[in-house]
Structures are given as structure tokens and as C-alpha cells.
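User: Reviewer 2 asked us to show a designed sequence for the structure in our supplementary figure. I'm pasting the C-alpha cells here. Could you produce the per-position amino acids so we can include them in the response letter?
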């Protein structure tokens, strides 16, 4: 049985709060973190996104995942706001969605796409800054996305579609995480 590492809501909020949103890099970073958490994207899917593919106004976009399968993902209100703010400070209008910082200036971006390793370092940096001891990776945010959905009553089939799993068996790894939720449902409805 696989052990799934996920974050509680309070831990996720601490990571978001650890970003320095008064700097260009912090504005970009909070947009990355919120997008990862609100969509359940794999880090490779996030890295491959182009600006013109993301419809912020509609709050949804298509992504090509594992096995070249296309699925629709959804942005929540806070990730839409963070992306709009990031768009305002980034001069690029097309091409890679998330850009690395320019070597010359910490307040501007290059035209280079962020890599998986760069995003992993960014997630690690903010989780440490937030005082979270467990190992936090971009995939931890994906697990946290799925766990949050399950705890709030989403059915497994919907979670499977949102994560882009080809098999429900893959998605079922999240069911053991909701035992406490199931117990509270049982207590509420079965006196």
C-alpha cells in the first residue's frame, strides 16, 4: 500500500502566506502554488502550459496529460486573481505560462520556461519557510487537491477525471485518507 503525503488546509494556507507577494518572483510563485493546488495538475503539465492556453476569465483550460490524454481543469477564485496579477507584471503575452527570473534583475523574468526542478525547489522553499516539517513536493499539492475534494464530498469518478487517471484503481489510493470523514458521516446519519 502506497503512503500518500498530503497537507491539511491550514498547512496549505501557511505555504501561500509564506510567499513574498510584494516582489515579482513572489507574485509569480503564489500564482504557481495556487494553480497547482486548485487544479491538481502534475508538475510537468504545469511546466508545459502556455499563456494562450489558459482562459482566466472562464476559469478553465485543457491540459494534455499522461498518455497524451486531454482533460479540462478548473481554477478557483484565488488562483484566477493570482494569475491576473502575474499577467500584469509579466511582459510576455504568449509562450510559456511560468517564466524563470532574469539573471540580471530579480524583478524581471526571462523568456525561459520554468523547469520541473525549479518548481520543486520553489515548493520546498515555501514549505520550509512556512515551518512545515514533512517533505512537500509539487505532487504533495496534487495529493492535497484530491484529498480536499474527497473530504468535501466529491465522488471518486469526478476526482479521477480531474486528476486525469486512466483507471479508477489509481484514484482509489485516496479513499483510505477519508476514513475520519467517513466516520463523521456515519455518526451523523446512523445514530
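Assistant: Here is a per-position design you can include in the supplement:
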Amino acid at each position: 500500500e502506497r503512503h500518500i503525503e498530503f497537507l491539511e488546509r491550514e498547512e496549505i494556507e501557511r505555504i501561500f502566506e509564506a510567499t513574498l507577494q510584494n516582489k515579482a518572483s513572489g507574485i509569480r510563485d503564489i500564482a504557481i502554488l495556487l494553480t497547482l493546488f486548485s487544479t491538481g495538475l502534475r508538475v510537468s503539465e504545469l511546466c508545459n502550459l502556455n499563456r494562450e492556453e489558459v482562459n482566466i476569465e472562464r476559469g478553465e483550460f485543457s491540459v494534455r496529460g499522461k498518455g497524451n490524454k486531454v482533460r479540462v481543469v478548473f481554477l478557483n477564485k484565488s488562483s484566477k486573481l493570482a494569475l491576473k496579477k502575474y499577467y500584469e507584471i509579466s511582459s510576455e503575452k504568449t509562450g510559456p505560462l511560468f517564466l524563470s527570473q532574469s539573471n540580471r534583475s530579480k524583478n524581471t523574468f526571462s523568456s525561459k520556461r520554468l523547469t520541473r526542478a525549479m518548481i520543486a525547489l520553489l515548493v520546498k522553499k515555501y514549505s520550509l519557510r512556512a515551518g512545515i516539517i514533512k517533505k512537500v513536493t509539487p505532487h504533495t499539492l496534487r495529493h492535497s487537491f484530491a484529498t480536499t475534494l474527497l473530504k468535501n464530498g466529491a465522488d471518486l469518478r469526478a476526482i479521477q477525471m480531474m486528476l486525469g487517471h486512466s483507471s479508477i484503481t489509481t484514484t482509489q489510493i485516496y479513499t483510505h485518507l477519508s476514513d475520519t470523514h467517513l466516520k463523521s458521516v456515519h455518526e451523523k446519519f446512523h445514530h
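For the response letter, you might also mention the following. The mean pLDDT is 87. The chain has nine helices and four strands.
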